[in-house]
């Protein structure tokens, strides 16, 4: 992080060019109903400022551009006011000393710590930060324009430009648990135009920000912490590699403080497995900028899931890579290609995919087959003479994607792509057989059996389908036997429950123990008994049990 010069603001002005005077007085900032931060509740002994608390003052901490504020203006009772600035504030001894945190010492962002944070660490570029804040306009109105104090914490990636420039700078200077005030000039906020109607033109802003915590940037596909990034050098430019980019990287891999790999590699992004680049690194590179250096923490599912004998890494280990993106050349996006280029890209992708599939690299193969779908599935400009080639490429992609998904045990999606293939070719042997496999592995054996029988009907010599039919039938038999056992046990349980109920009911027809039976009781008894009979009969029927217990009375 760049060091920030610390220039104090005094009543004589921020600097010679700004001719602006800021003072902060009083001991708290209040929202319209409750105090959002009370200095009396915190330890201010460590604040590097001359802070004098005036417990008698009822207004909010008063900060403003003295050239725009009427010292005699009364606060609006229905909105929270920012601090008023006047020359008398210094005389009263209520001046807070603020520091300039801009790299160019322009007083564009001024800071005053209200509550010191803990530790010596600061959030870095790209870290996920969590804050509460309140913002005021520093003009004649001095009103609060935004706050999330009563809502969930705001979270964003620091330095990525998702918030105003002044916020990225401000939060980068804060420690965990710190509360601070920031005066942000228009050039670090919404510019000269402002953000109407909430923020008028040429308006500086006052923010109170509380930094709760920050975390490393989670760049994993499912946001489960399996790939984390810590930016060391944010690099240059605003573009990143895309799928198919030619990249050159420097890699330093470590495990338990031991460096196991240090090298430079060149490859096509999406095909890193061809040069033994782990999936977690490839996924991270989509977020990199040119010359960026970051630490990438990779859990086993995107690293060496089964361990690595070459690098002496055990299974299920989390590893760390220091990655530098030395160069990259972006690939053409699909929307930038003409029809001929899309066909050429699809043919190359099919060839690469089959090679990856032969090598057992299903994920890499799947990415290549998906290129065919991206290029041709919704391509409107295919001439009539190329329609057959388009159909053949798409059918091949659907069939092979279903095969990859079967190997990856993603049976639901495998069925979907088999369905797509069967829409193009209803009697396709591979699509019927693979859909049957996916259904069988998904324990939908009845429907799987139907697919396998269709394969045998259309292709009698298909021995795999014959064998799969036998396996499916055995699974169905075992499941029925298991279901029968379960239903019998359930029936026994229900019968015991019925016997317990009968003990508390009549012992003879029409005779009740205790008080005389009423018509309502008799009707309720008959209804309850009939319901029990129907319920038990359902289970008996499902289990193929014929005999019904003689203890059940028929009506």
From TrEMBL:
Molecular function as annotated in GO:
peptidyl-prolyl cis-trans isomerase activity
- Specify the enzyme's EC class, one word: isomerase
Q: Which InterPro entries match?
A: FKBP4/5/8-like (IPR050754), PPIase_dom_sf (IPR046357), PPIase_FKBP_dom (IPR001179), TPR-like_helical_dom_sf (IPR011990), TPR_rpt (IPR019734)
UniProt entry keywords in alphabetical sequence? Isomerase, Repeat, Rotamase, TPR repeat
Where do the record's region annotations for Disordered lie?
1-20, 25-94
Biased composition, class Polar residues, residue ranges: 44-86
EC numbers on record: 5.2.1.8
Source taxon at top rank? Eukaryota
TPR repeats at which positions? 395-428, 429-462
Q: Which reaction does it catalyse?
A: [protein]-peptidylproline (omega=180) = [protein]-peptidylproline (omega=0)
> Which SUPFAM superfamilies did the record assign?
FKBP-like, TPR-like
Task: Indicate the segments forming the PPIase FKBP-type domain, all copies.
Answer: 126-215, 244-329
A Pfam family recorded for this sequence: FKBP_C
Which PANTHER family does the record associate with it?
PEPTIDYLPROLYL ISOMERASE
Instruction: Provide the protein name.
Output: peptidylprolyl isomerase
Provenance organism: Argiope bruennichi (Wasp spider)
């Amino acid at each position: 992080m760049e060091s920030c010069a610390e220039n104090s603001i005094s009543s004589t002005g921020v600097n010679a060019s700004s001719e602006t005077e800021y003072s902060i007085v009083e001991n708290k900032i209040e929202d319209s109903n409750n105090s959002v931060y009370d200095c009396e509740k915190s330890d201010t002994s460590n604040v590097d400022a001359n802070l004098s608390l005036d417990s008698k003052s009822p207004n909010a901490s008063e900060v403003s551009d003295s050239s725009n504020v009427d010292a005699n203006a009364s606060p609006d009772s229905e909105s929270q006011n920012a601090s008023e600035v006047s020359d008398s504030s210094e005389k009263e001894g209520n001046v807070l000393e603020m520091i300039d945190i801009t790299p160019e010492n322009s007083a564009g962002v001024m800071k005053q710590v209200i509550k010191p944070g803990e530790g010596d660490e600061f959030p870095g570029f790209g870290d996920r930060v969590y804050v509460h804040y309140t913002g005021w306009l520093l003009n004649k109105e001095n009103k609060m324009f935004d706050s999330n104090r009563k809502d969930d914490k705001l979270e964003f990636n620091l330095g990525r430009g998702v918030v105003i420039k002044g916020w990225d700078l401000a939060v980068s200077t804060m420690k965990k648990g710190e509360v601070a005030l920031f005066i942000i000039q228009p050039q670090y906020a919404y510019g000269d135009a402002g953000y109407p109607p909430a923020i008028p033109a040429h308006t500086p802003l006052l923010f109170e920000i509380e930094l709760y915590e920050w975390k490393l940037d989670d760049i994993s596909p499912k946001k489960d912490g399996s790939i984390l990034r810590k930016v060391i050098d944010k690099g240059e430019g605003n573009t990143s590699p895309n799928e198919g980019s030619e990249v050159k990287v420097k890699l330093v891999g470590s495990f338990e403080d031991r460096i196991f790999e240090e090298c430079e590699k060149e490859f096509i992004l999406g095909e890193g497995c061809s040069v033994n680049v782990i999936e977690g690194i490839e996924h991270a590179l989509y977020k990199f900028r040119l010359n960026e250096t970051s630490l990438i923490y990779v859990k086993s599912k995107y690293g060496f899931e089964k361990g690595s004998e070459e690098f002496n890494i055990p299974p299920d280990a989390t590893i760390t890579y220091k990655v530098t993106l030395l160069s990259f050349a972006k690939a053409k996006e699909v929307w930038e290609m003409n029809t001929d280029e899309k066909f050429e890209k699809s043919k190359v992708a099919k060839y690469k995919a089959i090679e990856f599939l032969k090598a057992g690299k299903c994920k890499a193969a799947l990415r290549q087959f998906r290129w065919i779908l991206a290029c041709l599935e919704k391509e409107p400009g295919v001439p009539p003479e190329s329609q057959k080639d388009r159909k053949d490429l798409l059918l091949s992609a659907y069939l092979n994607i279903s095969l990859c998904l079967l190997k990856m045990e993603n049976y639901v999606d495998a069925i979907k792509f088999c369905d797509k293939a069967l829409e193009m070719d209803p009697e396709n042997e591979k699509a019927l057989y693979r859909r049957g496999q996916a259904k069988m592995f998904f324990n939908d054996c009845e429907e799987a059996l139907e697919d396998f029988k269709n394969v045998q009907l259309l292709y009698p010599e298909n021995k795999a389908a014959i064998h799969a039919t036998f396996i499916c039938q055995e699974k169905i038999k075992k499941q029925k036997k298991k279901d029968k056992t379960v239903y019998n046990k359930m029936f026994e349980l229900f019968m015991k429950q019925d016997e317990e109920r009968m003990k508390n009911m009549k012992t003879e027809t029409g005779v009740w123990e205790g008080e005389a039976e009423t018509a309502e009781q008799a009707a309720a008894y008959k209804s309850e008994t009939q319901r029990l009979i129907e319920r038990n009969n359902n289970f008996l029927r499902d289990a193929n049990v014929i005999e019904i217990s003689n203890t059940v009375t028929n009506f």
